[in-house]
Amino acid sequence: MPTTGTGESGVTAPNGHWAGTGLPEPPRTAGGVTLCGGCRALGACRLGVERERLDEGGVARFELSCPRSHEGGPDVAHGGWTAAVLDDCLGHLPLLHGVMSVTAELTVSFVKPVPVERPLELRVWADRREGSRWYIAGEMTLAPGGAVLARASGIWVTRDRSHYARHAKWLAGQVEATEGQ
Ligand SMILES: CCCCC/C=C\C/C=C\C/C=C\C/C=C\CCCC(=O)SCCNC(=O)CCNC(=O)[C@H](O)C(C)(C)COP(=O)(O)OP(=O)(O)OC[C@H]1O[C@@H](n2cnc3c(N)ncnc32)[C@H](O)[C@@H]1OP(=O)(O)O
Prior knowledge:
Blueprint: H1 18-21, E1 49-54, E2 60-64, H2 79-96, E3 101-110, E4 120-130, E5 133-142, E6 148-158, H3 163-179
The structure holds ligand 3IX.
Pfam family, one: 4HBT
Membrane topology: Peripheral membrane protein
Subcellular location: Cell projection, Ruffle membrane; Cytoplasm; Membrane
């Protein structure tokens, strides 16, 4: 993994850029998976992402499996799981480069049913970057054999640390505007 710096969990942190963001190092699992707000208390990714790394060519690689709790049809993943995990993993590509971003657009192709509790792989790369916009794509495959199960592409927009404070202020304004109604 082409990384420097060590986080609280003892796992290597991406590029050491976090100091520059003014934000604390995001928590990571032993497999290097950055945890979102909902998974921090658990200390594990509830979507079943087990390992994450950036390879030498700048492609992010994930090892994952669909937990039984996300079963839709018999023994296959709910499409919402597939879309959620693609959103999450594609959005980790900027994070692995030390850049904060949010999903602006996401398109998912459900190519084949995704089996639950089977080893899967996900490759994620940037098609291009234009200003604050990252055009990112990815492909989910069955680990043994490499059959393509799903593809996704989308646009991520880089944000600074004021994003959530700005949102909170906007929400407060919305609540205030409706209180008198
Ligand atoms: C600071 C961001 C950090 C992101 C997280 C990264 C790291 C955190 C650290 C560790 C985390 C660990 C692991 C990662 C875990 C989670 C990652 C979370 C990522 C997400 O969970 S991803 C969720 C789904 N994705 C969204 O949730 C995006 C909602 N969509 C927008 O945020 C905008 O759409 C945007 C930015 C895409 C458009 O950007 P743009 O450049 O095309 O256009 P523009 O700036 O003009 O905004 C157009 C209109 O959105 C308003 N607007 C913009 N920013 C705002 C704000 N902060 N609050 C309130 N309103 C806002 C403007 O006021 C204008 O509104 P209006 O049209 O009414 O004037």
